[in-house]
Amino acid sequence: MGEKKIILGQFNTKSNLWLKPQVKEFIKNSNCKIAYDPFAGAGDLLTAVREQLGFRSLIGLDLDEALDWQVNDSLIEIPKIDGAIIITNPPYIAKQSASRKKIDLSMYFSTTKYDDIYLIALDRMLEAEDFVVAIIPESFINSNYKQKYRLSSITILEENPFEDTENPVCVACFDNRIKDYDEIKIYKNDKLINTLQDIMNIRIEPKNNINITFNTLKGWLGLRAIDSTDDIKFINFDFKENIKYDWKNRIKTSSRHLTLIDIGITDEFKNRFIDECNKIIHDIRIKSSDVLLTPFKGNTKSGKRRRRLDFRLARAIMEQAYENIIRSGKSE
To answer: Widest CA span of the chain, in angstroms?
Structure first.
């Protein structure tokens, strides 16, 4: 992948699968007559709305002088255009990733607390226009982005819309009205899942009231924290002996996919504790349609989005499992 493509975030859509019925309806209901892409790239999104929705007036901007658009750095400012709806796939690269790849984006990150370029892009877009449709990382759902209250809907795309990356993405639709989370709809592909408020109500937070150590060879509890691609091995807790993995040579302080955990559970209650942990994570996945778990690149063979369990939620799950056992009167 070329350096220019990475720096400019040039990942082009390969199909119109992002244009789900609910996204089309949102665009139509905006009553905007101009389709506006401030990160136009190859122009795929503008072409899609012209062909699918009949837009006749198309305006594109881009930082790349080699492209056939007006040159503009839309991470700094986006000109306002009356009667326009922004429809775009902005660049996204995390601050840490840019630093690791020696990509200098300090001129953008120096004036913000955001940790990814796409969040800066969202700010610029929402400052410029009332209506915005943006293909952005799915991790946005669990972010604390300040303009989330202007959301109308989020559509998770399980099928990859890109030709050169497998980043898990969603389509975020914003309008000019401030809302409560219970008005913001969450879709997975074409299906309405729930409201953002209902999803957030399922979240559990750690209390840090139990001594739990991750990534330690002293641990007796194994955690497979990521779904495999085979539709067989999913996120689960188990005795370390039951998870086939070279713990001794591969467990590191930075490990995030498989880990050993040390937590003080007496031998007689370890089986029940593991079962309780797996029940809690299963319930969270079912009730939230997996939305509360971190999306991971690629899908399973059946086309289901792979998920990763972050250690913060894993800690909360273990704390709750421990408390459940105590409440049941089966542990001390």
So the answer is: 70
**288 neighbors 202 (Cβ within 8 angstroms):** yes
* List of E strands, 143-291: 151-157, 169-174, 185-188, 191-195, 212-214, 221-224, 236-239, 258-263
Number of domains in the chain: 2
pLDDT, residue 14, reads: 62
Residues contacting residue 311 through CB under 8 Å, at least 6 positions apart: 214, 225, 256, 259
Same domain for 154 and 108: yes
Q: CB within 8 A of 182, min separation 6: which ones?
A: 195, 196, 197, 198
Q: What is the structure's pLDDT at 229? A: 93
Q: Could you give the dihedral angle defined by the CA atoms of residues 281, 286, 290 and 291, in that order, rounded to the nearest 10 degrees? A: -110
- Determine contact, residues 202/284, Cβ cutoff 8 Å: yes
Write down the pTM of the prediction.
0.89
CA terminus-to-terminus distance, the chain: 56
Q: Which domain holds residue 219?
A: 212-327
Residues of the chain scoring pLDDT < 50: 1-2, 4-8, 330-332
CA distance 178 to 146: 11
Residues 167, 245 within the same domain:
no
Residue 332 near residue 220 (C-beta atoms within 8 A): no
